[in-house]
Amino acid sequence: MTGSAVTVSGLGKTFGRGPAAVSVLSGLSFDLPAGQSLALMGRSGSGKSTLLNILCGLEQADAGTVMLLGENDSTADWPCLRRERIGVVFQEANLMPTLSLLDNVRFRASLAGQPETRCQHWLEVLGIGDLGHRFPDQVSGGQRQRAALAMVFAMAPDLILADEPTGSLDRHTANDVADALFRLQGETGCSLILATHDPELAARCQQTLDLGHRSGG
Fold first, then answer.
1. Coarse DSSP helix, strand, coil percentages of the chain, rounded to the nearest 5 percent
2. Would you say 1 and 69 are in contact if contact means Cβ atoms under 8 Å apart?
3. Which residue of 88, 132, 134, 209 has the fewest CB atoms within a 10 Å radius of its CB?
4. Cα separation of 217 and 211, whole Å?
5. What is each CA distance from 90 to 4, 10, 15, 49, 215, in whole angstroms?
6. Which residues, 6 or more positions from 75, have their beta carbon under 8 angstroms from its beta carbon?
7. Where are the chain's structural domains?
8. Is the pLDDT of residue 217 over 60?
9. pLDDT in tens, 83-141
10. Is residue 217 a contact partner of residue 46, using CB atoms and an 8 Å limit?
11. DSSP result, 181-216
12. Cβ count near 189 (within 10 Å)
């Protein structure tokens, strides 16, 4: 796709009411061109995860608008977008424990209407092609996170939202996972929004938005 993948205008989100109310996002605006990457920086509680949840329709903003993949947030079919066009990567790999790694990837591809024929390919590209028959509790945390990335790429998304995807990994494994994420994002041409505390990881993105330096954030 061309144009903007995500356009956010005047976004605001507050939790609680009265004296206990906490504003985590206030007047937030940015534009992410299709195919580019954006790092979200900021201390814990600055609104990184909240923003990602809004961008995939799991939370609703109190103010402002979101245009995402050509759709307005007020009329978007969020379940369909999450199933077919938005890939979400969590800090902890979100795998089904009763399925092998390969079957996890196949299941995600089938939900998105994508062929299962390339699922093994993605595991191989991510360096775990020989582990597809194993279950999540039979592999390391880094291997589970690679499988989670394989699930996302198997769905051929237009946008990836990654919430601290390397935060629970050791430095060496984190670097390997980050290398795979950026390499495959560049090869497939999808857009990427990455929440991270790691300045080195953020520096690899084409844009950086520091929510911790914003008033009300």
1. 40, 25, 35
2. yes
3. 134
4. 6
5. 24, 26, 22, 10, 27
6. none
7. 97-154
8. no
9. 999 999 988 888 999 999 999 999 999 999 999 999 999 999 888 999 999 999 999 99
10. yes
11. HHHHHHHHT-EEEEE-S-HHHHTTSSEEEEGGGSTT
12. 11
Inter-axis angle of helices 101-111 and 141-154, nearest 10 = 30
Q: Which residues of 108-145 are buried (b: 16+ CB within 10 A; e: fewer)?
A: bbeebebeeebbbebbebbebeebbeebbeebeebbbb
Residue 169 has pLDDT above 90, yes or no: no
pLDDT at 216: 39
Count how many Cα atoms sit within 13 Å of the Cα of residue 27 in the half-sphere of its side chain: 4
The model carries a pTM of 0.91
Q: In whole angstroms, what is the distance from residue 107 CA to residue 171 CA?
A: 30
| Angle in degrees, CA 196, 198, 204, rounded to 5 | 85
Of 19 and 38, which is predicted with more confidence? Answer: 38
How do residues 176-212 score in pLDDT, each as one tens digit?
A: 889 989 988 988 899 999 999 899 999 999 999 999 7
Q: Map residue 30 onto helix, strand or coil.
A: strand
- Asked if 192 and 162 count as a contact pair (C-beta separation under 8 A), the reply is yes
Instruction: Compute the Cα dihedral for 197, 203, 204, 206 and give only its sign.
Output: positive
The per-residue pLDDT for 174 is 86
For residues 118 and 70, give the distance between their C-alpha atoms in angstroms, rounded to a whole number: 27
C-alpha 156/C-alpha 58 separation (Å) is 21
Q: Identify the residue whose tokens are 């062929």.
A: 115
Of the pLDDT bands very low, low, confident and very high (cuts 50, 70, 90), residue 213 is low
